[in-house]
Structure prediction request, 381 residues.
Amino acid sequence: MTSKWLKESLRLIQEDELSRILDNPSLAPLVGSALAATGRGVPNFDSLLAIPSETTIDERALLRAFFEKMWSGRGHVLEIGPFMGGTTRAIATGMMANPNRSGDSKLCTFDRFGHYKADDGLYDFAYSLVETGQLQEDELRRLCQGGSFLDLFHAIHDDTDYGDLIVTTAGELRDAPAAVVQGDTLELPEGFVCDAVFIDGCKSWYGTKEFAMNVLPHLNPGCPLIFQDYGWHTTFWVSALIHLIPNAFELFANIDMTYAFRLTRPLTVDEVDRCFPDSVEDMGINRTIGLFTETERLAVERSDVRGIVSSRLHLAAGLAYLGSTADCIGILDTMLANPVYRQFHGQIGVARRQPTYRPDGGIFLSEPIVEKNDLPLTAPV
Prediction:
């Protein structure tokens, strides 16, 4: 049955008949797999892998296919948190291949462009750019100095065939209402028409709220929002955003940690502010448990095994954030002991050591006790 649906989804994507498969969230994993398979098949797909990235190959393949096959092409695309631009290249090359793209459409990418890794860590992470001949070693060393990687980002993208599409803004989302930021805050200019958003920069609870208040009220119903961190265990606030605002988002595709939704109705700043508290502490334990119990129920309803796992990890993370460490450990150890979750033991094991983090640092637990016949607790590739 799955193979049949995947083949049918591939055919519909290739024939631009997507409306027939996008109205059923239960098909989201198949749509995501079909988009990734389509993206892997485009000419020069290897160029999408040439930039070091913390996203998976299939996540970039999905973005490449989505922006060629599903993006309307009428407005601008907003990207939040590109790092060195592995996702930027996937999105931009898809935009370039889209026959409906307006000549005025831009890829507006927002990041603090710095202080993500120490200079040596950034250099080591980016060294494959030297190995593949994209940069000289001394040039890379120079571009990695001083904490900022904005010049490195420009060196990678400016001279490409899609370089003119990209508009960069250096700034950050605040971690608290009174926080002082380096650079600009995320504010869309008057008249900015955005018809797709990719989000990989919501790295705190309040930062997620600031994104939502500053962006969502500007979007029209039907606008796709693609969240790269939705399935990752630490960033439980992304899933919380989707489910705390009622009847506003409809899932249509997912692959790995990336989940894609459509905005179903207009939102206002006041509604976002009312539905999404300023802090996890304002949520409290009981509301946090209720929220992620509901996200798990919805994942079960659509037979989304990864979504079930993510919901439990998000509950554990929320409890750890609120200081309920014993309950967090109980959830994670129960999952590690359950063979049903064996294929996810890598991510669960990472969560068992650090379920989440605060703006001022990680929240760490004691090491789990692992049976000799258990799988290695390695991070997912």
Observations:
- The domain at 2-275 is CATH 3.40.50.150 (Rossmann fold).
